[in-house]
Amino acid sequence: MILTKKNQRRRTGKRTEIDLSTQRNRQTSRHLTLIPSLHRLFGIIQMLPKYFIISLSLYFFAVVAHAEYERSDFLERNSNLAESKPKIYKHLSGGVTTFSDTPPARGAYTILNESCFACGLNSNIDWHTTKLYLNDYSGEIDAASEMYRLESSLVRAVIHAESGFRPLAKSKKGAVGLMQLMPDTARELGVTDARVPSYNIRGGTRYLAGLLMKFRGDIDLAVAAYNAGPMAVEKHKGIPPYAETAAYVQRVNILYKRYKSVS
Q1: What are the angstrom distances between the C-alpha of 154 and each of 13, 20, 73, 222, 258?
Q2: Active-site choice (114, 140, 162, 234)
Q3: Residue 155 falls within a domain, yes or no?
Q4: Which residues on neighbouring strands pair with residue 120, listed in sequence order?
Q5: Is position 162 annotated as part of the catalytic site?
Q6: Residue 116 in contact with residue 224, Cβ under 8 Å?
């Protein structure tokens, strides 16, 4: 059968239309097979916030439970720890009122509850030779010092001056723990229980770091502010003229140099 050119064009056109129709059908088929997958993907995406919230809630409750366990465990294991740390003893020696970190061999004495361990004006503790606490709470002190970029020897000196390394120490003014945090200050620093060493050290170190930043790295002014408050330092444009604060700054400096020399 002989095809004319016109007939050949008609047949070629029909084949082209069939091919295009087949391609469209295949594409449509592929698109239709994708729809269930897209629905599943969309469903997963819709569920993500729900799973995220659930996971976040579980994580939050786990953190709170761990913190409560850590707090309870510490308090249970250290219910009488304060008795093993230094105290300030007030007694008469030759008719003169004397303060010491050791009880007198003879005679009556009382145990003082000073605003801080190194705040007693008439203390006869030799800060150049008194025992250093080189290993107590090393992990907590090192972690907090690294977090807030402070020398661990300075943090240790402040702890020594504030509480004599007694984690359950409490002053007459209500300051609590190793770094003697006042309740309002502790709340501002996010410290939920100032009796727990890790919380107290982290909060106290953060506060000390803030004071150092405020007073441009001047350790004396930062330490004075830790004792007397930053407003007192600003008001007097230097270490306030308070006998307790002057003694405190001097003693912290002695302890700081001693801890630094052996660190």
Answers
A1: 92, 82, 28, 11, 10
A2: 162
A3: yes
A4: none
A5: yes
A6: no
pLDDT digits (tens, 9 = 90+) for 101-156: 566 666 554 444 456 888 888 788 899 999 999 999 999 999 999 999 999 999 99
Q: What's the predicted TM-score (pTM) here?
A: 0.61
- Tell me the torsion sign for CA atoms 87, 90, 93, 97: positive
Identify whether 241 is part of a domain: yes
Q: How far apart are CA 246 and CA 50, in angstroms?
A: 58
Strand, helix or coil for residue 109? strand
Mean per-residue pLDDT, 222-242: 95
Q: Tell me the three state secondary structure of residue 156.
A: helix
Q: Is 242 in a helix, a strand, or coil?
A: coil
Q: Any idea what the CATH number is for the domain that residue 217 is in?
A: 1.10.530.10
- Give the pLDDT confidence of 48-60 residue by residue, as tens digits: 665 555 555 444 4
Q: Tens of pLDDT along 200-217?
A: 999 999 999 999 999 999
- Looking at the 3D structure of the chain, how many domains does it have? 1
Task: Identify whether 54 is part of a domain.
Answer: no
Cα–Cα distance, 102 to 211 (Å, whole number):
33
Q: Are 244 and 227 in contact (CB under 8 A)?
A: yes
* Residue ranges making up the domain that contains 255: 133-262
